[in-house]
Amino acid sequence: MMVADGDAMACTNDDCATTADRDTERAAQFVSTETQHEAELIETEEGDEFEGKPTATDVVCDECDAREAWYTIKQTASADEPPTRFFKCKQCGYRWRGYN
Q: What domains lie within the chain, and their CATH numbers?
């Protein structure tokens, strides 16, 4: 991963000295994690609070048959595999994983 270092981009790996000119026009298209607010971040741990996260309506809770659940997404396998969705039922609070 490269980070901004003045007018250049620098590799964050300690064993790498790679740098590149910073393309300010293209850089404006990206969001740095340094400027994101905590409310914009999506937690991906199963124990995290789900309330207020995106809602899925294409699922059915195994506990109460409700058809709405909050969800978060996490890449749990290699990058060429689809991500795992973690759900929390809006009605009873039951949690489960969904694999695509």
A: 1-39 (no CATH), 42-99 (2.20.25.10)
